[in-house]
What does this fold into?
Amino acid sequence: MTIIVTGAAGFIGSNLIKALNQRGETRIIAVDNLTKSDKFANLVDCEIDDYLDKTEFVERFAAGQWGGVKAVFHQGACSDTMQMDGRYMMDNNFRYSSALLKVCLDKRIPFLYASSAAIYGGSEVFTEERAAERPLNVYGYSKFLFDQVVRRLVYTNTQAASQVVGFRYFNVYGSRESHKGRMASVAWHNFNQFREHGHVKLFDAYNGYAAGQQLRDFVSVEDIVKVNLHFFDHPQQSGIFNVGTGRAQPFNDIASTVINTLRAAKGEAPLSLEAMVADGLLKYIPFPDALRGKYQCFTQADLTRLRQAGYQAPFLSVEEGVKRYVNWLIG
It folds into this structure.
């Protein structure tokens, strides 16, 4: 049977395909939009059965072109939080997802999709509850609106005909994200800044947080893939789940880990955060006006529902995951 992955050439989609390949799954239909063609590189070392552009996929899927389908991993979306074209965002993230969900329900095919912690926006509570959901941009709203469709489907008396799982990803970093450019993780940016300029940059103090001390739940793409595969292996589980580490860590931890991992690769001793700042290896820049009022200074996934659903594996800390990622980037 076939497995379908949308956003296949993207960050999480390509990592997911690679992990499925390692399980022996090669009958994979890869769906994406390669208008920005550099993403193709993420699929070079992956095995797939076919590639389709997203514009032609849903109609052919609804027509039953691929026969039996084990599951759809819907990772495709516009994830640019600075995208101001609301019509494009809603068509891409809400309408397209809704159409794909309908086909999966009609055919009783498991549907596992990418949601986002951007749904929480201005909230200080990160539980999968309506009261905590306060998106600050149209990207977060597009994800929020689709989650409401799923919530009504899964958590009311109208039971879904097949598995439906939404993953609210927190700040994801890891391999195969270079095509994201400015939307890539801070770990990727810090790595490239240090290699090119000999220092990294973080935001200065903002909203009561000291320089570099804004806190996020940074989660490795390795763990994101593991969670997806756990639910793939447990098709009786449906719902909306946070996917983060459950630990908020400061941006300073990312920068410190990147710098010390790169230093270790050259045989140099690790430095403290204070020494990095004193030596000019870590610099703080003014907080940009464009992000004021639209920026999450603190995120931390509440993992209660995820753990109750049976996922008990530990998550990589920043120090563990970013070190692994930097060593992967070094090659």
Notes: The longest strand covers residues 69-74. The CA atoms of residues 3 and 170 lie 25 Å apart. The mean pLDDT is 94. The chain has ten helices and 13 strands.
